[in-house]
Write a structure and sequence with these properties.
The longest helix is centred in the first third of the chain and has 17 residues. Helices cover 24% and strands 29% of the residues. It has 8 helices and 14 strands. It has one domain: Carbon-nitrogen hydrolase (Nitrilase/N-carbamoyl-D-aminoacid amidohydrolase). The strands form 3 sheets. The chain has a 6-stranded mixed beta sheet. A 6-stranded mixed beta sheet has the order 6-7-8-9-12-13, with helices on one face. The protein has a two-stranded antiparallel ribbon with strand order 10-11. The radius of gyration is 18 Å and the shape is globular. Bound molecules: D-[(amino)carbonyl]phenylalanine. GO terms for molecular function: hydrolase activity, acting on carbon-nitrogen (but not peptide) bonds, in linear amides.
Length: 301
């Protein structure tokens, strides 16, 4: 049997007034808890190092301080050092600022780090929701002001013999995310998210926020025979309530473990990777039963 012990490191609110160093120390403490519970691979939320700043219109001078110009940088290095010391890998969401051909580019990114503390993969969020300007009647969500859509596709990385895919927040609501990762051979998908409790544009859906968090992940895991570990940023962050519900989902579609709080909390499950083959044998023998020649509409505009 093949096993991989996964940890979803839910993170309570990261206020705008928090220093990066203080936040990194919290994340190191979560990684220590995950490792002492036997976890081999941990996931942190989307934009784990900062507040979820797309909720604001920021002045140009305020923006750069919220992005990482290098990963690891001097302030984030302790997390990479902790990974090596503890022998546990992790994925972390962060705001990425890079210079390409003399132009600044900004992505909502996630980095995979090995148990040796070395970078081993990067993903840039594909499904970037919200708008570039506040829109009347909607919750302010300016991700499209601060990030361009990812340009790295849906990569899958080797992690000690297990194939790992990455996804960020809104990506988890789209079946294409899981299908692309599945077809690239992913066995485990690590997800980070920041999801507001209240959406002013759809008060009638208010009671469904947690259902609509878990529903696509459970379906995505089942239909693509994946393990999923998903970490929320949770609780009251700069006045906005974020849902928690961090979880580990099996290829059966079952939630194997789930956070109970809206604060820093580690959710651990020893994932049986052989369940993937079992679920494929029962129904999802992709090579045998998929009808790709008849799915063309999916990639038409
Ligand atoms: N957050 C939201 C999510 O999918 C969202 C997206 C929220 C879109 C509010 C529009 C309005 O959970 C992220 N971070 O993608």
């Amino acid at each position: 049997a093949r096993w991989l012990t996964l940890a979803a490191c839910q993170t309570g609110p990261v206020q705008r007034a928090s220093t990066r160093a203080h936040t990194v120390a919290r994340l190191v403490a979560l990684l220590e808890q995950a490792a002492s519970a036997g976890a081999e691979l941990a996931v942190f939320p989307e934009l784990a190092l900062t507040t979820f700043f797309p909720r604001w219109v920021l002045q140009p001078a305020e923006i750069d301080a919220l992005y990482e110009a290098e990963m690891p940088g001097p302030v984030t290095q302790p997390l990479y050092d902790a990974a090596r010391r503890l022998g546990i890998g992790f994925a972390i969401g962060f705001a990425e600022r890079v210079m390409v051909d003399g132009k600044v580019r900004r992505f909502n990114s996630m980095e995979l780090v090995g148990p040796d503390g070395q970078r081993s993969g990067r993903y840039r969020k594909m499904h970037v929701p919200g708008s570039t300007e506040p829109e009347a009647g909607t919750t302010v969500h300016l991700e499209r002001r601060y990030f361009e859509p990812g340009d790295l596709g849906f990569p899958v990385f080797d992690y000690g013999g297990t194939r790992i895919g990455l996804a960020l927040c809104n990506d988890r609501r789209w079946p294409e995310t899981y299908r692309m990762l599945c077809l690239a051979g992913a066995e485990v998908v690590l997800i980070g998210y920041n999801t507001p409790q209240m959406l002013s544009e759809a008060p009638a859906l208010a009671h469904l926020r947690m259902f609509h968090n878990h529903l696509p992940m459970q379906a995505g895991a089942y239909q693509n025979t994946l393990w999923i570990a998903a970490a929320a940023k949770a609780g009251l962050e700069d006045g906005q309530a974020l849902i928690g519900g961090s979880c580990i989902v099996a290829p059966t579609g079952e939630i194997a473990a789930q956070a109970l709080s809206l604060d820093d909390e580690v959710v651990v499950h020893r994932a049986d990777l052989d369940l993937i083959a079992a679920c494929q044998a029962v129904n999802f023998d992709f090579a045998r039963y998929r009808r790709p020649n008849d799915y063309g509409l999916i990639v038409e505009r």
